[in-house]
Amino acid sequence: MKAHSLLFIRLILLLAFIGLVAGFVMSQYEDVRSMVITICVSCIGLGG
Amino acid sequence: MSKLRWTTQFMVLAIANLGFIQVLKTGIPCPFFYCYACPAAAFACPIGVFQNYAILQQVPFYAIGVVGVFGLALGRFWCGWACPFGLVQDLVSRLRGRRSQDLVRLPRVAWTKFAVLVLAIFLAWIALDTLFCKICPAGSLFAAIPQRFVSTEFSFGTFFYVHLATLAVVLVLFVLVGRFWCRFLCPMGAVLGLFNPVSILKVRVDFDKCNHCEECLSVCPAKIEKLEDIQSCTDCTRCGRCMESCQNDAIKISASLKR
């Protein structure tokens, strides 16, 4: 892959991913955090 | 470099467990394979997050963005230098003693981990359950067993024994085949592997210096078969063993936006 096309691809991807994080961090961060805080005991084969 | 890699792996394991302090339980998906059901987990497992969003019939844009940034920066460097499950595999491999070669030699197969990734998300979407988590050996080791010791009020369910069985099977496989999980089954490795051809940090081969002795290929834990594949194949974990083995100093791990 030529140097300038690789640089272009990287910049586009980087902007796209940063855009996704910036656009959805407010609405989805707490959802993901709740997955870490609330342990899925059934997922690991334990019961109440 | 080997000592530095061990140090980094143990440090990441410690950082991944900072969640024993409640405020350090974050909503950041980690770029490696570590179960967020671990009592002390500080980060979210992206594969778990992807499955949960598949159950909700939503797209995990934020998690895709975070994993994308991590992948674009370092590719599968995370697998070789940070992943706690990779560390477990490296530790188990040491049971072979001084033998660096696998006890069972398997050819490189790149597609299986992508199949596991697609299947894990598809099954979650269809069955509305995190089925992959229920058999995940990292979940067994980092979550099911520790959680049972931390919270004794929990009783054992069927999937606890399934977890123990899958863990036992993969531990045996780790003894026989180095980095078996990374090479054939890891869905997180599949995600990060997609970024290997475009990641900023890469293994770069100077073909002017290379004398094609292929010593680098003979020590490669990912069993890469061609010199040309070292730079961009989805299996390279950037462990650096090829670099260490090269007598001509033709292999470097370096970061560049343009190359």
Q: Overview of this structure, please?
A:
The complex is a heterodimer of chains A (48) and B (259). Chain A has 48 residues and is mainly α. Chain A has one domain. Chain A is built from one helix and one strand. Chain A has one helix spanning 3-37, and one strand at residues 46-47. The longest helix of chain A has 35 residues, at 3-37. Chain A is elongated, with a radius of gyration of 19 Å. With 259 residues, chain B is mainly alpha-helical. Chain B has two domains: 2-193, no CATH class; 203-255, Alpha-Beta Plaits (2-Layer Sandwich). The radius of gyration of chain B is 18 Å and the shape is globular.
* Inertia-based shape of chain A: elongated
Query: H/E order of the elements of chain B?
Result: HHHHHHHHEHHHEHHE
Spatial ordering of strands, largest sheet of chain B: 2-3
Number of helices of chain A: 1
**Biggest sheet character of chain B:** 2 strands, antiparallel
Q: What is the strand content of chain A?
A: under 5%
Domains of chain A (count)? 1
What's the gyration radius of chain A in Å?
A: 19 Å
Say what oligomer this is.
Answer: heterodimer
Structural class of chain A: mainly alpha
Overall strand count of chain A:
1
Overall mean pLDDT of chain B: 92
Could you describe the largest sheet of chain A, including whether it forms a barrel? none
